[in-house]
Amino acid sequence: MRFFSFFFILLLLSFHIKAQSYFQQQLTYNIHVRLDTVANTLSGNLKLNYTNHSPDTLTCIYFHLYPNATRSNTQTAFAKQKLQHNDYSFYNTPESKYGSMDSLAFTVDNQTARFLVLKDSLDIGILYLNKPLLPQQSIVIETHFYVKIPYAGIMRMGYIDGLYGITQWYPKPAVYDQYGWHPYPYLDEGEYYGEFGKFDVYITVPSNYTVAATGILFNQKEAERIKKIETLSKNGIWYPDTTSGEKELHFAQDSIHDFAWFASSYFMIAHDSVTIKDKTVHTWAYYTPYSFNLWKDAAKYVWQSVKYYSEMVGTYPYRVCTAVETPYICSGGMEYPTITSIGLYNNAKSLFNVILHEVGHNWFYGMLASNERNNPWIDEGINTFYESMFYPKKINKKQDWQKLFDMINQVDFPQTALVNYFYYAGMARPLGLKSENFGKAQYFVNAYYNGASTWYIMREYLGADTFDLAMKNLFAKYSFRHIYPEDIQHAIADVTSKPTSWFFDDYLNSTHRSDYIIKKIISSNDSIYVTIKNKKKTAFPFKLSFYKKDSLKYSTVLNGWHNQHTFSIPFSQPFTKAIINDDELFYEHNYNNNVYHLRKILPHMKGLSIRYVGITDYNQKYDVLLSPIAAYNAFDKYMLGCVLYAPQIPYPTFQIRAVPLYSFAQNKFNGSFYMEKNILLNNIVPYIRLFGLAETYSLPQNEFKKAWQKITTGVEIPFEYIHQLQQWNAHLYSNVNYTTYPFEPYSEYWYNNTGFTINKTINIFQTRVSMDVETGDEYSKLKLKAHLFFPYFKKKGFDADYFWGVFLYNRSRLAVYNFFLSGIDGIKDYLYDDVFIDRFHAFNDNVLWTHQFILSDGLFTTYVPLQSNRWMTSLRTSLALPIPPPFYLYGTVGTYYRAGKAFENSFIFPWEFGFEIRIIKNIFAVYFPLTMSSDIKQLSDFNSSSYFNKIRFMLRFSLMNPFKYTDKIPSFFE
Questions:
Q1: What is the pLDDT of residue 300?
Q2: Beta-sheet strands, E only, within 724-795
Q3: Which of 262, 264, 274, 246 lies closest to 323, judged by CA?
Q4: Own/partner pairs for 713-721, CB < 8 Å, 24+ apart?
Q5: 723-743 pLDDT tens trace
Q6: At a CB cut-off of 8 Å and minimum separation 6, what does 540 contact?
Q7: Which residue of 353, 416, 845, 950 has the lowest C-beta tally within 10 Å?
Q8: In 535-580, which ranges are E strands?
């Protein structure tokens, strides 16, 4: 008995310890800072009272030195993330426009203290305390600091044309919570986590400058000046202040975890107010004169936003809320306590929407202060949900392109279409990942729209009233605290017994979804008995709806379950079909098996929908979309036909595509047929793709055969690894090809291609390595290719391509299998991998389309008949000219088996040098030879009588196929 008593006491003690585990440090800031508008710098002094409310003894304190994120264009986390996303804007920025923070001289309780900047993270430093800081003790930390303000557009802080956005500008302690220290470096995709504190900030600026800042202004004279500017601004008049000298402005605010300010001599001002529970909140808008017509009502937009979020979540506690136009400094909008920075907009709706979103961050980031780097879905996702809920619900099923519009303009409503597109394209990532573990597009979709759409599902699942009660409970219990996912789960559990583990335990940590199918429906006098099976291991909630033809009769949201479950519904009206997730607002693995017709034969069989030039999937129908098409080649001449295809939104995991084309010259049908199946897997291996392709077109007129054929089946397996700003992409494939050999006697051959490609950005270098083994009936050859890109001018730079090919064995006498120094033209494309307008004519001076080729194998652009049935290697480099048109200089050198002995005067290392117009990278380019080794010139002169006829071009129609990369559209942003 004593044992059980002791155990019970320990259990109670453990619960007590767990309940007491939350703490937050107490900070009081006193900052004096001076803006130098000539040098574009800040000079300041920080005095910080730091109280340790943790149960731990601290020996050091981490500090954020955010301006140092732009101190190096390769060494900081910010710079590395930019390069990882193939964004060279910062890398190509002149060093004179970088930002930095230095001249730090820390003291603790008036004693000099050691401070070190981390070598591998220049925007993080460690302050070593002279003596340990015990629980509940306080210290006073002081330092001078000097900031070189970066130029606008590099980071969220910046200056341009006398306008200053001063954000992330002072030495800021990192958060210490129950999980330890959080010294996160500054990132472009990924925001902040800060300690709550009280701020007194004294800002010295030129006397003719206007400052908008976090908190309350305490200078009466400046308040009167602002009132004068506001009065003039109402009439569209800019106040040209010519006062000289300097002034010091005092701003203060308690219960915030950041402080931002903006300064300009050009600001116009709008003012309004709103009463929230008997308290007046003053709303302000600071903007540039040329935006008067757009911004004159912006203070109203601010108070409408404050009022909306106060009603939906919890009362706004501060006395002011401000929006500031910061063109070219801020892209979109960026939130700070009581103030937000807004970029360029050209219409009132867009401006109001971004103000609504950024003001909303006073709740989700401000008062409910989540760790934005660990849980970006909380601040951006939930806030985007509330932003979207401000607008009327818009779901238009009848317009085929409506889903695409919803994906582009997610403002109107958080449709799941964009999230589903990522999911079915194999690009889904768990919602709960840290921000640096997303790719660029993945961060945007997950942090904003996946979180928003999932929160809409939560509202539908709980019911609007229960959901609203839960969110107000969250605000009441956790405002002015750091919140975590479990706090949100507890706030919901306080008001409902409905389980939410499907979201907090499963969806946050995986990309799994449920897959429900109706197995049986039995109707009785007063109820319906339904049997539904979940084919997956994840049990999401879902909606079940009953229709009589197309008229909705009854709908209910159900808790999810595993396996199979039979239940009753108190519904007795006549109906003809039941549909799971009819509006696709609940996530599911497969929406195409959700219709059940009340009939004995084939109850799951859906009707057929044939639509003209469509794009979206109607899950209640079998969709066949139709588009006319015209085509041309040298032998079939003009062809007319159509494309029959599957909807591409969301990306289809199974699709069939047919392209019948009628040749008027040959009086017959040509075309192609394609079939693809994607098996979705996980984060590392997004999917396995199985595909088949068959196509046929005409051969030159002959007595043996009228058409060539190709049949290909294959498998593709992509790999992706993203972690802590490190990203690897790999692609494995294996194809089996059956093709017609393009010469008499037109025999058919089988081929196999197996290989891989690896992409990796290493520092500033984009690298790609690929290897392919091709095996035919009588040969096997290996190709190794490597590409390196080094930027030096915007997105232009230096390219290097290397090729090495070797026959592993070769018993064939067919020359088309050889390696060719001058790449592949139509007649050598024996696998029919690309599209050539004139496929079967050899290089000819007088025929334009015979100059079309693929830059591969030996990588020479000058046409020469040099080839090898043993081995060949080459290196090609190209240098972009730093001028707007896509002009490049290139040089190529190579060698091959018996080079130097192939013919009289042949070189061991032939070379060429030329000029390239690269119209579409890797797709369309025109090559102009300038000079070359004498052996190449000798052969080129023999084949081409004039310089004009030496010009060749690459035009890869196969890569312009609008369906080929529809699953990769999001990656184009990265």
A1: 98
A2: 726-740, 748-762, 765-775, 779-793
A3: 262
A4: 714/690, 714/753, 715/688, 715/689, 715/690, 715/691, 716/688, 716/689, 716/691, 717/685, 717/688, 717/689, 718/426, 718/685, 718/686, 718/687, 719/684, 719/685, 720/439, 720/683, 720/684, 720/686, 721/684
A5: 877 888 999 999 999 998 877
A6: 457, 502, 507, 513, 514, 560, 586, 587, 588
A7: 845
A8: 542-548, 551-558, 563-569, 577-580
Q: Which CATH class is domain 516-605?
A: mainly beta
C-alpha–C-alpha distance, residues 634 and 663, integer Å: 11
How many CA atoms, within 13 angstroms, populate the side-chain half-sphere of residue 791? 23
Look at residues 200, 164, 168, 198 and name the one whose alpha carbon lies nearest to residue 184: 168
What is the C-alpha to C-alpha distance for residues 300 and 283, in angstroms, rounded to an integer? 7
Q: Alpha-carbon distance 958 to 956, whole Å?
A: 5
Q: How is the beta sheet containing 58-64 ordered, strand by strand?
A: 114-118, 121-133, 58-64, 172-173
Is domain 21-195 given the CATH code 2.60.40 in the classification?
A: yes
* Token pair recorded at residue 666: 């040959």
Residues 6 or more apart in contact with residue 57 via CB below 8 angstroms:
132, 133, 134, 135
Of the candidates 412, 487, 506, 416, which has an alpha carbon nearest to the alpha carbon of residue 452?
Answer: 416
Whole-Å CA distances, 662 to 366, 466, 670, 696, 739: 64, 61, 6, 12, 22
φ and ψ at residue 441, rounded to 5 degrees: -70, -35
What are the angstrom distances between the C-alpha of 44 and each of 29, 166, 262, 276, 913? 13, 13, 16, 36, 57
For residues 736, 801, 971, 358, the Cα torsion angle rounded to the nearest 10 degrees is 170
State both tokens at 724. 């802590």
- Amino acid (one-letter) located at 944: S
CB-CB contact of 466 with 495 (8 Å): yes
Pairing mode, strands 121-133 and 595-597: unpaired
Q: Which residues pair with 181 in a beta bridge?
A: 176
**183 touches 124 (CB < 8 A):** yes
Q: What is the pTM of this model?
A: 0.90
Spatial separation of the C-alpha atoms in residues 833 and 491, rounded to whole Å: 58
- Residue 640's φ and ψ, nearest 5 degrees, are -130, 135
The helix-helix angle for 485-493 and 464-478 (nearest 10°) equals 120
The pLDDT value recorded for residue 801 is: 96
Closest alpha carbon to 868 in 897, 894, 895, 892: 897
Domain boundaries, the chain: 21-195, 384-511, 516-605, 609-762, 793-974
Angle between helices 382-389 and 451-462 (to 10 degrees): 70
Q: What is the DSSP letter of 413?
A: -
d(CA 959, CA 703): 34
Predicted pLDDT at 13: 39
Dump the DSSP string for 311-367: HHT----SSEEEEEE-TTT-SSEEEETTEEEE---SSHHHHHHHHHHHHHTTTBTTT
Residues whose CB is less than 8 angstroms from the CB of residue 69 and which lie 6 or more positions away in sequence, other chains included: 76, 77, 78, 79, 99, 122, 123, 155, 185, 186
Question: Hunting for tokens 């290397």 — which residue is that?
Answer: 802
- Whether the bond into 686 is cis, omega within 30 of 0: no
Dist CA 867 CA 872 (whole Å): 8
Tokens representing 853 are 């080729």
Residue-wise pLDDT for 193-241, tens only, equals 999 999 999 999 999 999 999 999 999 999 999 999 999 999 999 999 9
DSSP for 375-388 reads -HIIIIIHHHHHHH
Phi–psi pair at 28, nearest 5 degrees: -130, 120
In angstroms, how far is CA 476 from the centroid of its own chain? 34
Q: In the chain, which stretches have pLDDT less than 50?
A: 1-19, 971-974
Three-state secondary structure call for residue 471: helix
The pLDDT value given to residue 331: 87
CA distance 779 to 413: 58
- Nearest-Å Rg of the Cα atoms of the chain is 33
3-state secondary structure of 813: coil
